[in-house]
Structure formats: C-alpha cells, structure tokens
Amino acid sequence: MPLLEWLPGVPYTRRVPLTILATSDLHLGMKFAGLPDVQAELAEARFACLERLVATANARRVDLLLVAGDLFHQAPVKRDVLRAAQSLRAFEGRLAAVLPGNHDHLSAGPDSLWPVFREACGDRVLVLDEPRAYPLAHYDLDACLYPGPCRLKHSAANAIGWVKAAGRHAGSRHHVGVAHGSLAGVSPDFDGSYYPMREDELLAAGPDLWVIGHTHLRHPEHLGRACRIFIPGTPEPDGYDCDHPGGAWLLGFDDGAVAAEPIETGAYRFVHDAPASLSAAELEALAARHAGPDAEREVLKVRLSGRIARAERGRLGETAEALRARVLHLDWEDDGVRESLDRAAVDAAWPADSFPHRLLSSLLDDPEALEIANEALEEARL
C-alpha cells in the first residue's frame, strides 16, 4: 500500500519528500458542563486524542505535525498547558507547529498561554504567532509555513491578507498556508465574524496548499485533482452537530503534487436519532441501532414525536432503560409524544355530547381526518 492515497490524475511516485499530519480544533480544556454525568470522561478524551494523533504521526513517520488553531478551548489552567506540551514533545518527526486560533487567540503578558506553552514545549514545537513566512530549513524541512494567527475571538477580517503581498519564500521547495476561520460555502458564519475566507482568495495567495481550522467537519468530502484547501475538522467530536467519528488529514508533497488521506481519530460519537414512528418495530430498530461494543462510547440524543396508545406507552420507558444501560450517555426526550386518538382518548379529552366529542367520534374510522380535526380543535381551545 502507498503511504498516501494519491489524488486522481496525479502521477504517483514512491518518494514523498514532505508529509504532514494536519489537525485542528482539539479544544483541550472543554468542560462539557451540559453533560455532568460524563463531563470528566469527555474532557479527558480530548487529551487522549492528542496522544493518539502524535502516536499516529510517529507510526506513519510524518515530518510535520500541524495544528491549525484551537488546540485549547480557552486560556487553560497551567497543568493543561504542560500536559499538551508533554504530548507534543513525544512527536518524533521534524517539527510540530501550532497556530493560535480564535478560542486560544494571542494575548499580551508573560504569563499568558503561549509564552508558557512555548517554554514547556522546547525547541521542536513552533508557535506560529506572527503573520510572516516561517522557513523550516532549521528543522531540516525544505518547506515554508505562511500562518494567519488569531488575535481576537471574533474578527470580520481574516488574518491571511499579508500572504499574497509578501510572496513565496525563495529558498523553500514546499509552501503551506495555515489559517483559522470560516470558509465561504463550507462553514456556518452567518454574520461574518469568524475570520471569513474565500476559496479564490486562498488559492490566489501563493502557497501550494492551505490547512484551515475552525470548522469542525472535515473538508473536502471527496478528493479531486484540484484539492488545495483542507479542513481537518475536530479530531474528537464535541457535540451533536459533530455526528462523525473525528478525523484529520495526512497530506504529502511530491514536486508540487498533493496527496491526501483522511484518517479517523475520535473515540466517542455524538449521535442524534429520531425514529420515524413509535411502532413496536421502530422502537426495536432504535434499540438495535445502539447495541454492541461501540454503543458504550455513544453520547446519544433521542427525540420522539407522534402518537402512541395509552396501553403501549410503557414500551417507551422500556426502550429508554435498555439504551441507558448500553450507551455512555442518553438524552431522551418524549415530550412530543401524544396519546393515540381512540375512543378512550376522545372520551378523556372532551365532554360527552359536546360538539368536539361528536365530531371526533364520527371520524374514528378515518385516522387522517381524525388527526386533522383534533389538531384544529386543540388550536381553537388554546
């Protein structure tokens, strides 16, 4: 097997002069306050993920480990900084380079995050804290990095404007841009406050490829010959909007050609499940989807809606208990479940001989019409 999966149409050679493990958005120190029963476990998982990333990079003999921002969730306690530095010091390649993102942005003062981190890391971890070219010949890498470090949590302007104006470093063979912020057409950034970037802007800036942090979903989904912009996504999912296994990019250069291999890196999964109905078969299928050894690493959100007969409502509780025993955490919401409209439900809801009671009783053999009429009556009653 080749070291990397080469892009279609790009000639493959066995020699790969530069390999990069690209990651971002580890958010070390995230508290998970909304999940108190598994808070400590999920917080610890992010540090374990960094250790796995370093181990993967070592196993694949990667030259450069590149973190495109938000290594930390916010200004962390010192022990977390020291722990992250210890993990990165275990990287056996040429260099680990870390970009300040919008969550762990640069701030003034000798006791701020990055001076403490830099001192703890030693001379084989580079903090990309200046908007300038970083030639890497000192690290025996024929490459140059072009970073856009973040200085604030929010910015309507991105941090890469200097790159095109500065031009490519003449003494380097490989040119890699690294930035943190939203990418138009890919990232949600409705008010343009997260260092917004455009694809044409990045491609025109000069580097051979860009590694972009901030968006927690990996991009692109499908590789193609023209791929020059890579978003690693978060390597350890951190919420229900990250319904993926966590990942990173293994990237390679060969005379200007780019090779890319997506790798999975996460241990836990955030899963959102909404059964199509409340039938016995659907509830059995729900339970079956979250069984087996992988279920114990699921943070599962189940949202139920629809109608169920009063006599069968106990099946909901049974299903919830079965899931709760299997998964790491269950967020079960059945507030949207209503009792099925049958004779007993109509009798319980409306006085006998009232107009609503007579109307609904006449529609008991037509479930669709019964549902429409009942909704109209309930809205009128409100």
In short:
The chain has 382 residues and is an alpha/beta fold.
Overview of the structural elements:
α1 runs parallel beside α2. Helices cover 28% and strands 21% of the residues. It has 2 domains: 247 residues, Purple Acid Phosphatase, chain A, domain 2 (4-Layer Sandwich), CATH 3.60.21.10; 113 residues. The longest helix has 21 residues. α7 links the parallel β13 and β14. About 2% of the residues have low confidence. With 382 residues, it is an alpha/beta fold. The protein is built from 10 helices and 14 strands.
Q: Please mark out the parts with pLDDT under 50 across 5 or more consecutive residues, or reply none.
A: 8-16
At the first level of CATH, the class of the largest domain is: Alpha Beta
DSSP helix fraction: 25-40%
The neighbouring-strand order within the major sheet is 4-3-2-1-10-11
- The total count of helices amounts to 10
* Strand/helix succession: EHEHEHEEEHEHEEEEEHEHEHHH
Instruction: Give the biggest beta sheet.
Output: 6 strands, mixed
Keywords for this entry:
382 residues, alpha/beta, Purple Acid Phosphatase, chain A, domain 2, six-stranded mixed sheet, five-stranded mixed sheet, 14 strands, 21% strand, elongated
Please specify the SSE layout and strand pairing.
Layout: E1 18-23, H1 39-59, E2 64-67, H2 78-89, E3 95-98, H3 113-121, E4 125-127, E5 134-135, E6 143-148, H4 161-166, E7 174-180, H5 199-205, E8 209-213, E9 229-230, E10 247-254, E11 257-264, E12 269-273, H6 280-289, E13 298-308, H7 314-326, E14 329-339, H8 343-349, H9 355-362, H10 367-381
Parallel strand pairs: 1-2, 2-3, 3-4, 6-7, 7-8, 8-9, 12-13, 13-14
Antiparallel strand pairs: 1-10, 5-6, 10-11
